[in-house]
Specification:
Elements lengths: L6 E4 L12 H11 L4 E4 L4 E4 L2 E11 L6 E10 L5 E4 L7 H11 L6 E3 L2 H6 L16 E4 L2 H8 L5 E5 L9 E3 L6 H9 L6 E5 L8 E7 L2 E9 L14 E3 L5 H16 L4 E7 L2 E6 L6 H8 L3 H13 L2
Parallel strand pairs: 1-2, 1-6, 6-7
Antiparallel strand pairs: 2-4, 3-4, 4-5, 8-11, 9-10, 9-11, 12-13, 12-15, 13-14, 15-16
Helix pairs in contact: 1-8
Length: 315
């Protein structure tokens, strides 16, 4: 059984990493604690030569004290040299992102690629949740302004948001009688050129947007992100505060419903969002929350995750 794995992280630049809250940092730190050789590159460093995926990358020493990152000289490597390759690039999920998953598809099965690039590509974080529509809020997906306005008449308030948004970007709360409603729809749809989601507003957001972390389909921790004063978004980087919470029977039921599909699709590390009793998103690209949940619950999610990677690799 192999216990030390050579790992590459495809990620954002190190100078963009906030070590006080970043989950990829915690994953890299745990790998370094175990003596694993750890490398990083950016999606733009990937290239394919004669059908083989390569990247220009640097090995990096990761520590809990400053300097947190000590990168070494960059060099080109074939990705089949690695035991594990993590795709940890933050959204936006655009065509550059999609194309990088095509290159990761070319890595042979002897390397564990996480999360599975085919599943990242196929499981849009908002649309994927609609596969369990019975557990979600009423939702309309459209780019037609007239259709959106007619649908919104049935609700006191609605939320409108772009299908490819992240971190609360472009999420608006409005209602049919809002004189700005049509203008909002024109902007978000780009004059009916882009799809959006229109959802019933969930007043339970005031008590928090619950983030639940699942590893191999199993719950390992959770937190609630409570919107800041004067905002409706449960996103930490726009001022939401983090508080502890318990899983309700409904939360547990939702997680059990998702588990078989997440395992089947190779979605090892997933963060789901629940408001009240409703599943709103399934985050598969670059889930966050490790440090916040560790602090609230006394867990070490990065250790649980790394143990599971070893189990996956040695199957």
């Amino acid at each position: 059984m192999k216990t030390q794995l050579k790992t590459l992280y495809v990620m954002d630049s190190l100078d963009k990493i906030n070590v006080k809250g970043d989950s990829t940092y915690m994953m890299m730190l745990e790998a370094n604690r175990r003596g694993w050789d750890t490398f990083f590159c950016h999606p733009g460093d990937l290239f394919v030569k004669e059908g083989v995926a390569h990247a220009r990358m640097s090995q990096v020493l990761v520590k809990s004290e400053e300097p947190h990152f000590t990168p070494f000289s960059a060099a080109e490597h074939s990705l089949d040299e690695f035991d594990v390759v993590w795709m940890r690039k933050d959204p936006p999920f655009n065509m550059d992102y999609v194309f990088s998953t095509y290159m990761l598809d070319l890595i042979p099965d002897t390397t564990l690629v996480l999360n599975d690039p085919r599943s990242i590509r196929n499981c849009n974080e908002k649309m994927f949740a609609l596969q369990w529509a019975a557990y979600g809020p009423d939702t309309l997906v459209t780019r037609e302004i007239k259709r959106a306005m007619e649908w919104a008449q049935s609700y006191e308030k609605v939320v409108i948001k772009p299908w490819d948004g992240n971190g609360g970007r472009g999420v608006l709360v409005t209602h049919f009688g809002d004189p700005n409603f049509r203008s909002m729809l024109e902007v978000l749809t780009g004059e009916e050129k882009q799809y959006i989601l229109v959802q019933q507003y969930l007043p339970e957001i005031k008590q928090g947007d619950k983030r639940i972390i699942l590893i191999d389909g199993e719950v390992v921790g959770q937190m609630a992100r409570v919107p800041g004063e004067g905002d409706h978004r449960g996103n930490m980087h726009v001022g939401a505060s983090v508080v502890s919470c318990e899983l309700s029977p409904r939360d547990q039921e939702i997680c059990e419903q998702l588990k078989p599909t997440l395992q089947k699709l190779g979605l090892l590390f997933v963060g789901i969002d629940i408001i009240g009793d409703y599943l709103t998103e399934i985050n598969v690209t670059s889930p966050t929350g490790i440090q916040e949940i560790n602090a609230l619950m006394g867990t070490k999610i990065e250790k649980i995750l790394t143990d599971k990677i070893l189990e996956y690799y040695n199957r």
